[in-house]
Structure formats: C-alpha cells, structure tokens
C-alpha cells in the first residue's frame, strides 16, 4: 500500500461541510441542497 502525501480531496470537502454552521433554516436547507446536488452529479458521472 502506498503512503498518501496529500490530504484526500473527498475528506477535504467533508471537513469543509462540517465546519460551516447554518445561520437559519433557509441557510441550512441551501447547504443541504448543495450536498444533494453534488451527490446527484457524482451519481450521473459514474453511471455505466
């Protein structure tokens, strides 16, 4: 197994998402929608 020198890009995104706090319910919904959009795009990119 090779040793990784840089931080994992996926973990950087997850870490960034956990560090952001929602100001109100609308802001939280917008953050969740961004997560859903990224997941949906990822699913589209990996379809066979």
Outline the fold blueprint:
Elements lengths: L8 H11 L5 H21 L3
Description of the molecule:
The protein has 2 helices and no strands. The radius of gyration is 14 Å and the shape is flat. The protein has helices spanning 9-19, 25-45. The mean pLDDT is 81. It is mostly helical and 48 residues long. It is 67% helix and 0% strand.
Q: What keywords describe this structure?
A:
mainly alpha; Small, acid-soluble spore protein gamma-type; 48 residues
Quick structural overview:
By secondary structure, this protein is mostly helical. Helix content is 67%, strand content 0%.
The separation of the N and C termini measures: 28 Å
- Give the topology string: H per helix, E per strand: HH
Structural Rg: 14 Å
Tell me about the largest β-sheet: none
Mean pLDDT: 81
Percent strand equals under 5%
How large is the count of helical segments? 2
* Low-confidence parts: none
Instruction: Please tally the β strands and state the result.
Output: 0
Structural class: mainly alpha
Which descriptor suits the 3D outline?
flat
Estimated helix fraction: 55-70%
Region (Disordered): 1-48
Organism: Paenibacillus chondroitinus
Protein name: Small, acid-soluble spore protein gamma-type
Biased composition (Basic and acidic residues): 1-20, 36-48
